[in-house]
């Protein structure tokens, strides 16, 4: 006699595919699952392969079908013209839903137009699109008729009528014995608040429920979800260790990932909540790589590409390149070339060429107009190269979790290539930037969870049971926490009109009604409450859109149900949580002086520059932090824009100009604008790419005009002054009372008779410069004068500022440039006297530094008597914290 | 289909301030739903905010539950209740195909729309550099620029034109034509252009003045400044780029007395600037170009959105407006729509209003609720006069409005005060019955209803401190508030007080003073990124992204330890002395936040930008540090809320990237946040639940209420909207079928910079009819704003005045000279007396004493040593070292397999064949086909695999039952859960046999090695069987299906 075939007992719940808030029973031959699980089980038993096609694959297949079926009068044709992907996605979902409601793939003539149009597509799609769930069910139902399977019974936690029509047919078709499990009933002691509420929810008594606040029903609220996560962690840990015999379930229909992060942070085992996201770094590489294809270069995308945690250029190279890209936004500048060389020199000789090609491929590629688009082949190449990198990275990495992410990203890259090929077959050879972005979105799907984080258990300890839907509750639980109790279910509203609905029904498409869905939800929502035996805790958050309907329900049937503020000490006490006092720590206050240990000698620097000297005397704290302690911001803080960027580009342009035009007097200023126009595109690409970003064209054009005007004006001033030669970026060294100076002079102008003017070129702040000159404060110019003197200049050079944005020249008490504005310091002192004052001031500061006394001249502090260098010193401004990188470490005001 | 005639069914509810609007709405909806007059699925209701929508939904549901209508209450999920845009979006999504738009349109919000619009404008101007330059030059000369940053603003002006035009449903063609009419209307007020060489004459005069003025002789500040102005002006004149405000400045010739004669000729010429032909031309060019660019940009913007599959709020409204003419849509909606309810209709934009009118035709019942007296959003596009006209027309057609005549909010004294103020003030447009309210609350005779606080001091900050002192005393005075919920008096709390200002700067001033006085405050303000809490959080994120950022290290260390800078700086100086350690790894080898962040860095490849921020905050213990700071519990709460606000901003970044379909990275997030702070859009938490004094603008107070309201800035100047963009009134009477017909926009460039007085042409315009109309509009809007502000108080209203002033332009619009009490009682014009108070307040240094701050933190039990992953997968269990091979049963020859194939697929197929065969199916041929291996292996061969296995089992073990693909679940002693499917479980009299199939094609020489590698998996099954079954496991086998063997593992 042939041996018997052993059968499986199934317990089925509508939402039981997700985590179930109940202890797992040791079992053999038993399965608890949801519809998806049942489907998989049946497919296994029927020998049907389980690897289903991804939605994206099916979408691309279906897209092809619509493409061949579309008629100008089809209801979707206008939308199709606007966006085929989007239309195909919607239509595919619709027809999948029909199949899932029993559709056989065709309609008789005479059905409403939209139905007929979809049926017309289906003539092709039926054969060429991988089956969706509905088709899979239908096939199984067909096979079940003459293929015996091994399911003994199906125990239903939800009644058969709660399932969509086709699922009901499937369940019946298994031929298994159907056991109808009873609905969840109230589990708490009827005399408790919780017990009363449970009964009231099932059988309303018509009047408000008087609660006694016995702690069985508790609601707490905080402004934001992240305010309660650590509280739940603590509660969980205390519950599990304090009451190991009592079950605890945590329901988080949304945002459960926040809870898991807090559990991890609080040392509790993670529950296994996770959030799908399309923003995982591995998935950003392909879109970033594509962003670099467009003209003009997108410098922000470049910085992102280079500072990303993963990417096809080795991290050690990207680090160097990222910093350069942040400081000089663009590609092709000298700085950039140097950075590339620096990267390559660190690599073994034999590898250099390969790495150089690699950098060039990703960053220095040809760029295309975003509107006109790029050839599909170029994109496919990029994607394939990304795919190759991903394959390599996946092989190189040890970590299974990361490998799985790489695999998903790899699939995306491959789907992307396929999609491009398909488009090419349809005759679409070039893709605009928008096309590319959408295509990436289309292949990106719904993203991935945090793959390196899964549910955990603490050895030999009980665990809390997570749930992601109220409807999964079935087993009594001592304590239920309904965290983030906000509306999460949306009822599917069918897009069909009444007549379409009627035609669908008449043709065997039995869509589940909205009312039926709601009536099941109505039952499901009360389950977590009914299952609780000792306590039900609701956690509400102010940052949710809307409370969960069940919460509205509870609050309207109960009187005096208080919502306690989650973070108040009383609440914690009430929940039995132990909180410890901790030492308060006031924010570091602002203090005008820092006293370092006097024995802490600061190392002298070889050279000081104008800016370090300026910090030394005006902002000693800055000098200390920047030069002595070497505290520097990272590369992202260095992304240069605004005046700084404008100033740099202006400098570079002038430098360029005067290197090409050395005969100043022969210059025809009328030609300047055209020259500037011709230079700017390249200059901006190399060093000012931020100005080329979309949306900044007007600003950029304005910038160019300002540069034209200013250069004309500068040349005119030079010509009027009889200047015959100009040098820019003149490096010089000198000495001052404390040691050696070095620096480079923006512009040095020399007349035919050997007189010199030193011009410092500033982007803006005309009034600030004018005022400080007037007050007799011009350290930068004075420093440059020293450099000139040290270099053997015959006389003290004339000093001027040139303000680019205003095309304005400011002469310091001279008329070297006859049409410039002359500023006479009110002090009446000349530059040499000024320098003497400066040196005096420096020595005064030096003495302070030597004794460890550092002045912190920031806003919100008052000068003291130590702040005064005395008669012979320079007047000191009260504060100097403009452009202060260090504002967050130099103390805080009382109200901050 | 023409629809039902407009408005026949429109039921208006006019709901004055505090008249119980929400209550009435809830009641109305509840009645209709309970009586089954409408069903939830047939309801569409729009509200002004998301919050209001949620609240309405909740309240109605509650009322239905109270009424025992559980089923209907549940069905409320089907009602379409939301903001105008969410409702439009929903309907549009439903009818996307009818609208010819992509069905999964991404809706972009206003910020995202702004970014896109500017890109579109750029595209419209691409290849048209000369236009850009021309506009740049015009904007430079007209000084259409930000006074601070000097950034040109013409693009923003163009955008305003487009926004307003769209809100009024105007097409690009219409827009294009408006430039000329605008310029014509403006230049009509100018003196005619004179053909004179103004520039040359002015240059001559400037040169003359420069030569003549001697700054050694005239050392006045004015003269020195003027000389600087002249130097600049000379260069500018030579290059034809003198701005018009500079012309005006020259015309004012502000110099010391000693130089006056030298500048007289200059002033004479400059004063005639209004006749300068170039000015006329500049104004005309700018205006016409602005409208032309607006039209082009609008076209480009629409096209760009189409390309990207995006839709913005206005599109939704316009599309829907058109779509309602589509017969299918009209029919379907007409079938379904039973009730259309529009809340706060006075705040609708013109296009929304038109849309609601059209939608109203399709509904069985229509209810519009609102209060035209509270229409205060004129500055952002709603048009009360249009609304008024529409209302009038509808009422004329026989729809008597329902007026809610009772006040539930304020005390009778305050209601009387408001009645006396506003019935006369609105008498020019509204009847008394539409303004007057009947008080329903109990009187509160012992406390002053209205107070005048006279703030002493010449400077704003001094007066603000005086106010802070006043508030402190008020709180200390034992004043009571009537609790809203239980109607009982209780001591006044911080959160009971609101202070209303006209603008954010003034709020800031007050905020500082209150903070200095240690009064807790809440208000919407920027500066999130410079708060210490967010600085710390962001430093953690920066540190995570950039291991070289040691400024971040310093920030994290400083803010976590709160050490004096001296201490850690010394430590740092010592650290970098030691050459062996890289300067950037400072503090990373000490236990603490930096070490934790370093450890976290390896997880960066997994984390989304927001997750990275959250985990960085967690890893560095930011919340704990913040909690220590205090110095009050309220401040701590605010700090924590700010952290949540930061996370929300981070989420906005992702949303924006999503809307633009662009990649998002953590570095991108940091840059984005920085840009947000630069634009001063990094708003702090507004502190919804904090018990703190609320600071809010008068506009922002709309819809809110407090026991005590302090109204500031009542003397603000009126600012008629004459310059810039104006929407001219609709021609009357309004056509309800096309209410937006013939609307016109006008744009007058603001060419005069900061000059507003002593400029002749400006005076002419102010006094003109246009000027007067604008003034009248402003007066009306000012009155409505006062109505909103002064009706927010439940128990007490405090009017703050600078000591010096008795009245001012804004409050004067009410023409109620009596409104400021100056004693204990105020006699209202109707003769009634209400209790009042008038006090003078001077600056004090009173500081509210706070109890010492005691932070607390959860006491986490010690960390468990190990955490295991919950799930244990049998197939990943490592082989058992002690395992060995037992019996080997040969099943026959190797089965023939051909061609290339994926071994895993073949394995699965053979699994399936064996399983189905055992269950009694004859499925082999189907299975091989399904798996695509029918050419790899023949049906006979596959069947042989199965048959010979079963025969061998029969021969060797006398099985009583086969369990194929059999589920097993158990929990290990340590708590891990093992779930697996046993390929084949054979039951015999003696016990159970476990068999695992392998399809490896490799020969028998390798069997043992392969079999041993699965010993762990087999053991896991055995352990489970021991737990779950009473039968012993007698043996475990690996079945080599292809090469034909059964290998026993012991
Ligand atoms: S807030 Fe206080 S006074 Fe008001 S109802 Fe609640 S308990 Fe009563």
TrEMBL record, chain A:
InterPro entries: PDDEXK-like_dom_sf, PDDEXK_AddAB-type. Residues 860-883 are annotated as: Disordered. Residues 609-791 form the PD-(D/E)XK endonuclease-like domain. This is PD-(D/E)XK endonuclease-like domain-containing protein.
UniProtKB/TrEMBL annotation, chain B:
InterPro entries: DNA_helicase_UvrD-like_C, DNA_helicase_UvrD/REP, P-loop_NTPase, PDDEXK-like_dom_sf, PDDEXK_AddAB-type, Restrct_endonuc-II-like, UvrD-like_ATP-bd. One of its GO terms (molecular function) is ATP binding. Its EC number is 5.6.2.4. It is an enzyme of class 5 (isomerase). It comes from the Bacteria. GO terms for biological process: recombinational repair. Residues 412-703 form the UvrD-like helicase C-terminal domain. GO terms for cellular component: cytosol. Residues 1-411 form the UvrD-like helicase ATP-binding domain. It catalyses: ATP + H2O = ADP + phosphate + H(+); Couples ATP hydrolysis with the unwinding of duplex DNA by translocating in the 3'-5' direction. The keyword Cell wall biogenesis/degradation does not apply. ATP binds at residues 15-22. Keywords: ATP-binding, DNA damage, DNA repair, DNA-binding, Exonuclease, Helicase, Hydrolase, Isomerase, Nuclease, Nucleotide-binding. PROSITE patterns: UVRD_HELICASE_ATP_BIND (PS51198), UVRD_HELICASE_CTER (PS51217). The keyword DNA-binding applies. Gene3D superfamilies: 3.90.320.10, P-loop containing nucleotide triphosphate hydrolases. This is DNA 3'-5' helicase. It comes from Mangrovimicrobium sediminis.
């Amino acid at each position: 006699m042939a041996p018997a075939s052993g059968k499986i007992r199934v317990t089925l719940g509508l939402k039981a595919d997700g985590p179930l808030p109940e202890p797992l029973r040791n079992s053999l031959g038993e399965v608890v699952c949801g519809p998806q699980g049942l489907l998989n089980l049946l497919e296994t038993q029927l020998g049907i392969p389980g690897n289903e096609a991804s939605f994206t694959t099916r979408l691309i297949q279906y897209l092809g079908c619509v493409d061949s079926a579309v008629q100008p009068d089809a209801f979707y044709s206008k939308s199709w013209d606007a966006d085929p992907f989007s239309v195909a996605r919607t239509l595919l979902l619709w027809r999948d839903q029909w199949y899932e409601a029993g559709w056989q793939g065709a309609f008789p003539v005479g059905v409403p137009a939209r139905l007929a149009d979809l049926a017309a597509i289906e003539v092709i799609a039926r054969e060429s699109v991988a089956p969706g769930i509905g088709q899979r069910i239908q096939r199984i139902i067909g096979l079940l008729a003459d293929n015996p399977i091994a399911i003994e019974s199906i125990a239903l936690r939800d009644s058969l009528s709660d399932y969509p029509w086709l699922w009901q047919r499937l369940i019946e078709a298994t031929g298994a014995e159907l056991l109808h499990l009873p609905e969840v009933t109230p589990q708490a002691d009827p005399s408790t608040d919780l017990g009363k509420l449970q009964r009231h929810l099932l059988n309303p008594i018509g009047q408000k429920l008087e609660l006694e606040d016995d702690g069985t029903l508790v609601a707490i609220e905080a402004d934001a979800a992240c305010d309660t996560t650590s509280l739940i962690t603590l509660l969980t840990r205390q519950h599990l260790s304090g009451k190991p015999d009592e079950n605890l379930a945590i329901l988080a229909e949304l945002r459960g990932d926040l809870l898991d992060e807090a559990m991890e942070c609080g040392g509790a085992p993670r529950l296994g909540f996770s959030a799908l996201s399309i923003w995982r770094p591995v998935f950003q590489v392909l879109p970033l790589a594509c962003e670099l294809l467009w003209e003009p270069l997108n410098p922000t995308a470049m910085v992102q590409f280079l500072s990303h945690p993963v990417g096809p250029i080795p991290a050690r190279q990207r680090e160097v390149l990222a910093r350069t890209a942040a400081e000089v936004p663009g590609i092709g500048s000298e700085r950039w070339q140097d950075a590339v060389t620096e990267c390559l020199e660190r690599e073994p000789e034999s590898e250099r060429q390969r790495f150089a090609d690699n950098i060039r491929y990703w960053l220095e590629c040809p760029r295309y107009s975003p509107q006109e688009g790029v050839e599909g082949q170029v994109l496919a190449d990029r994607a394939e190269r990304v795919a190759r990198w991903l394959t390599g990275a996946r092989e190189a990495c040890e970590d299974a979790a990361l490998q799985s992410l790489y695999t998903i990203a790899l699939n995306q890259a491959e789907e992307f290539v396929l999609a491009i090929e398909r488009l090419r077959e349809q005759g679409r050879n070039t893709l605009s930037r928008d096309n590319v972005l959408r295509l990436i979105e289309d292949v990106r799907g719904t993203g991935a969870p945090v793959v390196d984080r899964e549910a955990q258990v603490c050895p030999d300890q009980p665990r809390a049971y997570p749930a992601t839907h109220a409807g999964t509750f079935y087993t009594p639980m001592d304590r239920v926490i309904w965290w983030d109790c906000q509306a999460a279910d949306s009822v599917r509203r069918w897009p069909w009109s009444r007549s379409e609905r009627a035609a669908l029904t008449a043709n065997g498409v039995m869509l589940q009604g909205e009312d039926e869905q709601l009536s099941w939800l109505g039952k499901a929502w009360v389950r977590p409450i009914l299952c609780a035996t000792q306590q039900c805790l609701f956690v509400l958050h102010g940052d949710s859109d809307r409370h969960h309907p069940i919460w509205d329900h509870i609050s309207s049937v109960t009187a005096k149900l208080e919502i306690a503020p989650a973070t108040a000490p009383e609440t914690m006490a009430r929940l039995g949580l132990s909180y410890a006092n901790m030492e308060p720590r006031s924010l570091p206050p602002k203090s005008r002086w820092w006293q370092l240990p006097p024995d802490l000698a600061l190392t002298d620097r070889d050279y000081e520059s104008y800016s370090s000297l300026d910090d030394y005397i005006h902002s000693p704290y800055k000098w200390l932090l920047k030069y002595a302690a070497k505290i520097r911001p990272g590369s992202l803080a260095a992304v240069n824009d605004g005046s700084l960027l404008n100033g740099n580009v202006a400098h570079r342009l002038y430098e360029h100009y005067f290197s090409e035009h050395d005969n100043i007097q022969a210059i025809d200023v009328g030609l300047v604008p055209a020259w500037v126009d011709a230079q700017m595109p390249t200059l901006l690409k190399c060093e000012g790419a931020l100005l080329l970003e979309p949306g900044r064209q007007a600003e950029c054009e304005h910038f160019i005009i300002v540069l034209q005007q200013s250069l004309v004006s500068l040349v005119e001033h030079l010509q009027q002054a009889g200047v015959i030669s100009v040098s820019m970026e003149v490096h010089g060294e000198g000495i001052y009372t404390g040691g050696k100076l070095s620096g480079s002079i923006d512009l040095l102008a020399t007349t035919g008779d050997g007189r010199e003017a030193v011009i410092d070129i500033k982007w803006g702040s005309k009034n600030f410069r004018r005022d400080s000159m007037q007050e007799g404060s011009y350290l930068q110019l004075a420093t440059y004068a020293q450099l000139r003197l040290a270099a053997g200049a015959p006389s003290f050079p004339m000093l001027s500022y040139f303000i680019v944005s205003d095309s304005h020249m400011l002469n310091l008490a001279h008329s070297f440039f006859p049409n410039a504005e002359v500023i006479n310091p009110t002090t009446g002192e000349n530059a040499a006297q000024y320098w003497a004052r400066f040196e005096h001031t420096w020595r005064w500061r030096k003495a302070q530094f030597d004794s460890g006394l550092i002045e912190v001249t920031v806003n919100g502090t008052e000068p003291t008597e130590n702040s005064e260098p005395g008669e012979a010193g320079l007047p000191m401004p009260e504060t100097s914290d403009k452009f202060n990188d260090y504002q967050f470490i130099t103390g805080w005001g009382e109200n901050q | 289909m023409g629809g039902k005639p407009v408005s026949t069914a429109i039921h208006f509810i006019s709901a004055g301030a505090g008249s119980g609007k929400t209550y009435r709405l809830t009641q109305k909806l509840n009645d209709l739903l309970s009586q089954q007059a409408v069903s939830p699925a047939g309801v569409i209701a729009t509200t002004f905010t998301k919050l209001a929508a949620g609240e309405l939904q909740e309240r109605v549901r509650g009322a239905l539950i109270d009424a025992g209508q559980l089923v209907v209450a549940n069905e409320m999920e089907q009602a379409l209740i939301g903001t105008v845009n969410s409702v439009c979006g929903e309907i549009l999504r439903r009818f996307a195909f009818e609208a010819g738009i992509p069905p999964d349109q991404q809706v972009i919000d206003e910020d995202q729309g702004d970014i896109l619009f500017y890109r579109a404008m750029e595209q419209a101007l691409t290849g048209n550099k000369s236009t850009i330059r021309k506009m740049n030059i015009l904007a430079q000369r007209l000084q259409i620029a930000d006074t601070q940053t000097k950034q040109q603003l013409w693009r923003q002006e163009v955008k305003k034109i487009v926004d307003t035009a769209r809100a009024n449903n105007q097409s690009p063609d219409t827009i294009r034509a408006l430039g000329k009419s605008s310029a014509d209307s403006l230049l009509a007020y100018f003196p005619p252009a004179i053909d004179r060489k103004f520039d040359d004459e002015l240059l001559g005069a400037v040169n003359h003045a420069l030569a003549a003025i001697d700054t050694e002789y005239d050392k006045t500040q004015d003269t020195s400044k003027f000389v600087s102005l002249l130097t600049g002006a000379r260069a500018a004149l030579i290059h034809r780029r003198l701005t018009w405000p500079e012309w005006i400045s020259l015309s004012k010739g502000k110099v010391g007395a000693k130089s006056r004669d030298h500048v007289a000729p200059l002033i004479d010429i400059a004063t005639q600037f209004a006749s300068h032909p170039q000015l006329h031309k500049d104004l005309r060019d700018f205006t016409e170009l602005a409208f032309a660019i607006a039209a082009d940009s609008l076209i480009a913007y629409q096209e760009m959105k189409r390309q990207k599959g995006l839709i913005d709020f206005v599109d939704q409204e316009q599309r829907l407006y058109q779509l309602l003419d589509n017969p299918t849509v009209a029919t379907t909606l007409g079938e379904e729509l039973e009730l259309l309810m529009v809340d706060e209709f006075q705040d609708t934009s013109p296009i929304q209003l038109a849309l609601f009118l059209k939608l109203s035709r399709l509904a069985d019942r229509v209810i519009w609720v609102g209060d035209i007296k509270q229409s205060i959003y004129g500055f952002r596009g709603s048009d009360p006069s249009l609304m008024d006209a529409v209302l009038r027309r509808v009422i004329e057609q026989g729809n008597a409005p329902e007026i809610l005549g009772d006040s539930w909010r304020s005390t009778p004294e305050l209601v009387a005060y408001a009645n006396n103020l506003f019935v006369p003030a609105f008498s020019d447009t509204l009847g008394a019955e539409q303004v007057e309210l009947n008080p329903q609350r109990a009187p509160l005779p012992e406390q002053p209803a209205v107070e005048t606080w006279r703030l002493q001091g010449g400077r704003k900050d001094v007066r603000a401190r005086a106010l802070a002192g006043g508030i402190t005393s008020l709180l200390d005075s034992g004043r009571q508030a009537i609790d809203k919920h239980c109607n009982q008096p209780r001591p006044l709390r911080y959160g009971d007080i609101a202070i209303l200002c006209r603008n954010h700067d003034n709020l800031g001033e007050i905020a500082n003073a209150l903070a200095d006085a240690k009064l807790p405050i809440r208000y919407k303000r920027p500066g999130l990124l410079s708060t210490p809490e967010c600085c710390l959080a962001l430093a953690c994120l920066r540190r995570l992204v950039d291991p070289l950022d040691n400024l971040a290290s310093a920030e994290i260390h400083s803010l976590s330890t709160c050490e004096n800078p001296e201490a850690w700086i010394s430590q740092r100086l010592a650290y970098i002395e030691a050459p062996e350690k890289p300067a950037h790894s400072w503090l990373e080898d000490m236990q603490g936040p930096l070490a934790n962040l370093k450890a976290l860095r390896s997880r960066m490849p997994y984390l989304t930008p927001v997750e990275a921020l959250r985990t960085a905050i967690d890893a560095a213990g930011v919340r704990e540090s913040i909690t220590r700071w205090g110095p009050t519990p309220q401040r701590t709460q605010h700090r924590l809320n700010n952290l949540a606000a930061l996370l929300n901003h981070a989420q906005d970044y992702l949303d924006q990237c999503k809307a633009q379909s662009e990649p998002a990275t953590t570095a991108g997030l940091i840059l984005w946040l920085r840009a947000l702070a630069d634009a001063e859009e990094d708003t702090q938490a507004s502190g919804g639940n904090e018990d703190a004094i609320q600071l809010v603008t008068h506009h922002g107070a709309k819809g809110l209420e407090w026991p005590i309201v302090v109204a500031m800035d009542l003397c603000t100047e009126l600012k008629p909207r004459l310059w810039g963009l104006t929407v001219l009134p609709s021609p009357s009477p309004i056509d309800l079928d096309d209410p937006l017909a013939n609307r016109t926009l006008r744009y007058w460039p603001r060419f005069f910079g900061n000059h507003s007085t002593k400029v002749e042409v400006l005076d002419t315009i102010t006094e003109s009819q246009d000027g007067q109309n604008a003034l009248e509009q402003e007066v009306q809007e000012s009155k409505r704003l006062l109505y909103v502000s002064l009706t927010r108080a439940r128990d007490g209203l405090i009017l703050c005045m600078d000591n010096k002033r008795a009245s001012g332009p804004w409050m004067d619009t009410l023409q109620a000279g009596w409104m400021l009490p100056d004693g204990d009682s105020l006699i209202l014009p109707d003769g009634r007396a209400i209790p009042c108070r008038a006090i003078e307040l001077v600056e004090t240094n009173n500081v509210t004493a706070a109890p010492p701050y005691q932070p607390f933190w959860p006491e986490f039990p010690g960390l468990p040593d190990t955490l295991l992953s919950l799930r244990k997968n049998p197939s990943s269990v490592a082989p058992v070292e002690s395992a060995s091979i037992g019996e080997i049963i040969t099943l026959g020859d190797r089965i023939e397999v051909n061609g290339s194939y994926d071994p895993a697929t073949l394995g699965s197929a053979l699994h399936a064949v064996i399983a189905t065969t055992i269950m009694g199916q004859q499925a082999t041929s189907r299975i091989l086909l399904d798996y695509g291996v029918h050419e790899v292996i023949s049906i006979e061969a596959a069947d042989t695999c199965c048959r010979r296995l079963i025969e061998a089992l029969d021969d060797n073990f006398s099985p009583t039952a086969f369990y194929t693909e059999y589920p097993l679940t158990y929990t290990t002693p340590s708590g891990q859960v093992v779930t697996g499917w046993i390929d084949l479980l054979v039951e015999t009299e003696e016990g159970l046999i476990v068999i695992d199939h392998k399809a490896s094609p490799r020969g028998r020489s390798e069997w043992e090695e392969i079999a041993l590698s699965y010993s762990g998996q087999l053991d896991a099954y055995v352990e489970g069987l021991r737990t779950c079954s009473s039968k012993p496991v007698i043996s475990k086998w690996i079945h080599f299906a292809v090469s034909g063997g059964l290998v026993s593992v012991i």
